[in-house]
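Example 3.2
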Amino acid sequence: MILIRPLLLVSLLLAGAAHGGQARYLGLLNRAHDSVVTLDVAPAGTEAFAPRSINILAGGGGSTMIRLADEGCRFDLRVAFRNGRRVVYRDVDVCRGDTLVIAPLKKTPDDRAVALEPQTPTRGR
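Structure, written as tokens:
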């Protein structure tokens, strides 16, 4: 009985180590004028977007924290605003920063919405 507990503890620790990966989180700070209503996340460079459940993120400074995945550092984030516009932040490296600033959008000649700020998350904003 005395040996069972240490063996059980060691097996649980090994199982956790074999699982690998550390959960990846990202803060979102909405500096855009309109509210964010949906968020989709994909591994960087893929189109395998999966929706993330978020509450409406108010424009002008609303913020939230989301869990992205258990492994990997780079993700593509597709953000949809209440007014129907969408933007994709590509190749966001969550290992280099912990907060993504969702910037005000501008229109391009082909009527696409693009972000005004760089897509690299920052630390401690």
